[in-house]
Amino acid sequence: MNHIDDKFFIALADNLLTLIEKKGLDVAEIAAAANIDRRQVYRLINKEHMPKLSTLIKISLAAGIEPNILFDFKFNYKEYMEIMGIYLAKPKK
């Protein structure tokens, strides 16, 4: 299986795995509680598939992790924007 190389997604998946491990939870139990296929969770934490936001929220909530905590990690957004060709929108004058 190919791995996703998006740096933000990698950081997000790593953060999710860290949070799951800290709570001592089993991935299969989280998937069952979220009512999703356990392969989706494994593919996420193995960085093989980037799920929809709604799936991330389901996984997060089933693990007892508030979604804002899932996205709360250090990340170099400026570098990411440069790599991805993202520019800051400017308001119209």
**Oligomeric organization of the protein chains:** single chain
Number of helices: 6
The helix-and-strand class reads mainly alpha
What fraction strand? under 5%
**Broad shape:** elongated
Binned, the helix content reads: 55-70%
Give an account of the 3D structure.
- There is one protein chain.
- The chain has a single domain (7-84), classed as 434 Repressor (Amino-terminal Domain) (Orthogonal Bundle), CATH 1.10.260.
- The chain is 59% helix and 0% strand.
- The protein has helices at residues 7-23, 27-34, 38-45, 53-62, 67-70, 77-84.
Topology:
Elements: H1 7-23, H2 27-34, H3 38-45, H4 53-62, H5 67-70, H6 77-84
Helix pairs in contact: 2-3, 2-4
Brief rundown of the structure:
One of its GO terms (molecular function) is DNA binding. This protein is mainly alpha-helical and 93 residues long.
List keywords for this structure.
0% strand, 59% helix, 93 residues, mainly alpha
